[in-house]
């Protein structure tokens, strides 16, 4: 079956939706919820700020003294955390940032605008110290009104919000200690084939080390999924069929395999799934053209092609966006326009995805189009899109790139930020 | 002490360097190394590919038959993972993608260009089947040469490389099972003050919930640091001094506190550290002006201001870039140019950092400049830089933004990627 990239993306999203149950939220303490996605709207149980408070260290001024705050008697100081008595007319209370505004007060004058521009000691206050403030203080000056950030009962964060530091900080600030998050997406990652060896083991002639399982496990974990690795020995389709039959229902949201789905004479995944409802497609994508998608014994299944670059491109083009859509995380990749620093050719009938290094609005290709170029992939920080219908592009043309790694960059001028992360290849 | 943003950035980086020992790498299995930073160069113990192999499913052609590969006798098929016998002149061997090229072969012709364009069965081969291939096959066609991605002994990844899925995949492909990574940066996060309550506990009048500890713990963890929380009761400087004295040397790379470093009458951190080597600065930054930086009993110490937005801005402007530089992770934030969709004013004497929502090259401000606006911070995905010397900017002007959260975006046309992540506020 031939498919466009968009058609296969829709098929993968539909497949994931059929198996993933977003309706069983986990309730986690805030400290465990980083990077998760909110399953339900969370309302603010208190207003932020919870009460009118001072934005500055200074003097709280009575509403009746705003026009002419001259020679005011200095009242008891108000530290943050206390509940102050009412402010009397003709007095000014030293008040600290974040402290509750006393009843009667209408504004705060910062200490540096007071005369004298310093706080009195307790002994000075007891001796009847006075302070003079500038005339014509505006009501509300340096007062943070209760609820001005968010009023009690309003939605603090809607369902689907990705929980980063700021979002968790807001929930903590509202007093919310535990949050309902969507369940992690559970993936069973299958590795098959006689020709691949585990990293660290000796390499027999004719065999290669298994890069795909490590690469996809990391990519899935990075995207927030729970991953289980399952190694099948041998190239026997029956072993694979038995493995599928043994998956306990309800424990796995997706089975993912690589390799064995192409046009060769020994395609173990294809052979094992003959007669099943899994569809084997040729997607107009390079690399990543051969794709398998369907269910086996009711469990959603995706088969990616076996070259490591093809596997990563398949993940980034099909699975990661579907996880974003269906499970709410990971956050979508950033797609940017970039200026090509070289000419490039591409097969017009396919959406070609090259690897590149993006920096300061420009992109250089890293390595050729070959899907075995793992070292070049590891030295790149973006996927470069050469869409269907495009046969060639010239230096200076604009392309879209998907950022998949750290961007070395010249930071804004005033900031002495180092350039670290991925080294630029020679 | 008055400082520019760049001066304080340099001071913080210097402080972190004085305490962090990058020279004690941890050696981790690949599966545990995601998001870590390589401590040493890693060389490829094998070439990639390890041997000449086929890029396609097709026929391996003898060097002597390239010019006229007509009616070649079909030899034994070569699956991936096997070691094939030498190819004889006048024969062609069916060969699968990734399979070792047989000695004598010089090229591979894809199966779809063969006549017939399908693989024979074993019985057909035994019966003396022949195949005809196009004339004039180029030597090297569809052959992946040993070492063409990386030759044995070359640096696969240099020290300082941030380890994402592609980098771990490369190491696995090279057979490297364990990698030396830089140690995690260890932070002791202090919370102080009587006026803050733990989320989930009841809120006494005049007090607020502690947002900073949750926010900074998440920000530090997100940046790859190990975080220990340490809650100090009371506002007594002596308690804080005792806590510092009790930190075991060699267990903490940084102590971080928030609040208590400003110009008020009750600044517990400042009072506790009177006479120490900690410097209290006024940085030309808003929010985040008051900053403390130094060592206590030999342990590096940073004090951030106490409002949540000030704390996050301090983290993003000073601590996160220093962690990138000194510990090698996290990867630096992406800084982009964006077009303002509204007019904005800024104090000329300071680098003002506003919160914004970046999308499709444009940025809208979220909330006002107030450093207590936690809800607005949680609804933003970037920091907007209004540098020193800039008093106002107009709609359509360009500003630099630092991305700190997911970007909702219109994906490239052919890709049906959903817009999820952070919801856009009303």
What are the key terms here?
8 helices; Molybdenum Cofactor Biosythetic Enzyme, Chain A; alpha/beta; Molybdopterin biosynthesis moea protein, domain 2; 27% strand; homodimer; 4 domains; 5-stranded mixed β-sheet; 7-stranded mixed β-sheet; 28 strands; Molybdopterin biosynthesis moeA protein, domain 3; 426 residues
Q: What this model shows, in words?
A:
Two copies of one chain form a homodimer. Chain A is an alpha/beta fold. The first copy, chain A, has four domains: 2-22 and 184-327, 3-Layer(aba) Sandwich (Molybdenum Cofactor Biosythetic Enzyme, Chain A), CATH 3.40.980; 26-48 and 148-181, Molybdopterin biosynthesis moea protein, domain 2 (Alpha-Beta Complex); 53-144, Molybdopterin biosynthesis moeA protein, domain 3 (Beta Complex), CATH 2.170.190; 335-403, Beta-clip (Beta Barrel). In chain A, 19% of the residues lie in helices and 27% in strands. Chain A has helices at 5-19, 122-126, 165-173, 212-222, 237-245, 268-272, 308-327, 374-378; strands spanning 2-3, 26-29, 42-43, 53-54, 58-62, 72-74, 91-95, 105-110, 130-131, 143-144, 155-157, 178-181, 186-191, 196-197, 208-209, 226-231, 254-258, 279-283, 285-286, 290-296, 299-304, 335-340, 344-345, 351-359, 362-365, 382-386, 392-393, 398-403. In chain A, strands 1-18-20-21-17-13-16 form a seven-stranded mixed beta sheet. The longest helix of chain A has 20 residues, at 308-327. Chain A is elongated. At the A-B interface, helix 1, helix 3, strand 14, strand 15 and helix 4 of A face helix 1, helix 3, strand 14, strand 15 and helix 4 of B. Chains A, B: It catalyses: adenylyl-molybdopterin + molybdate = Mo-molybdopterin + AMP + H(+). Chains A, B: Its EC number is 2.10.1.1. Chains A, B: Residues 188-325 form the MoaB/Mog domain. Chains A, B: Pathway: Cofactor biosynthesis; molybdopterin biosynthesis. Chains A, B: Keywords: Magnesium, Metal-binding, Molybdenum, Molybdenum cofactor biosynthesis, Transferase.
């Amino acid at each position: 079956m031939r498919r466009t990239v968009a058609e296969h993306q829709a098929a993968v999203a539909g497949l994931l939706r059929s198996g993933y149950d977003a309706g069983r939220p986990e309730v986690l303490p805030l400290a465990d919820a980083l990077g998760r996605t909110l399953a339900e709207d969370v309302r603010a149980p208190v207003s932020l700020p919870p009460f009118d408070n001072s934005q500055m260290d200074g003097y709280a001024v009575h509403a009746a003294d705003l026009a002419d705050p001259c020679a005011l008697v200095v009242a008891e100081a108000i530290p943050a955390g206390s509940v102050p008595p009412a402010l009397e007319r003709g007095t000014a209370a030293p008040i600290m940032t974040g402290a509750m505004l006393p009843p009667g007060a209408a504004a705060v004058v910062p200490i540096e605008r007071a005369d004298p521009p310093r706080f009195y000691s307790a002994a000075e206050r007891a001796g009847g110290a006075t302070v003079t403030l500038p005339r014509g203080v505006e009501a509300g000056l340096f007062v943070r009104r209760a609820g001005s950030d968010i009023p009690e009962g309003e939605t603090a964060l809607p369902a689907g919000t990705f929980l980063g530091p700021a979002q968790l900080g807001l929930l903590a600030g509202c007093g919310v200690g535990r949050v309902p998050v969507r369940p992690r997406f559970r993936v069973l990652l299958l590795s098959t084939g006689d020709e691949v060896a585990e990293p660290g083991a000796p390499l027999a002639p004719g065999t290669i080390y298994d890069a795909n399982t490590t690469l996809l496990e990391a990519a899935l974990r990075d995207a927030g999924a729970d991953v289980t690795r399952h190694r099948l020995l041998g190239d026997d389709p029956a072993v694979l069929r038995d493995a599928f039959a043994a998956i306990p229902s309800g424990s796995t949201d997706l089975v993912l395999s690589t390799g064995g789905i192409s046009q060769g004479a020994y395609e173990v995944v294809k052979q094992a799934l003959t007669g099943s409802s899994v569809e084997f497609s040729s997607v107009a994508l390079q690399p990543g053209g051969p794709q398998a998608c369907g269910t086996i014994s009711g469990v959603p299944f995706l088969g990616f092609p076996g070259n490591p670059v093809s596997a990563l491109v398949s993940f980034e083009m099909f699975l990661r966006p579907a996880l974003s859509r269906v499970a709410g995380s990971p956050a979508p990749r950033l797609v940017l326009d970039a200026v090509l620093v070289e000419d490039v050719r591409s097969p017009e009938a396919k959406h070609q995805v090259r690897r590149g290094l993006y920096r300061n609005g420009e992109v250089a290709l890293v390595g050729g189009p070959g899907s075995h170029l793992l070292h070049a992939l590891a030295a790149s920080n973006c996927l470069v899109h050469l869409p269907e219908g495009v046969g060639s592009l010239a230096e200076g043309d604009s392309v879209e790139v998907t950022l998949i790694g750290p961007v070395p960059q010249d930071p804004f001028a005033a900031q002495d930020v180092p350039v670290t992360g991925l080294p630029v290849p020679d």
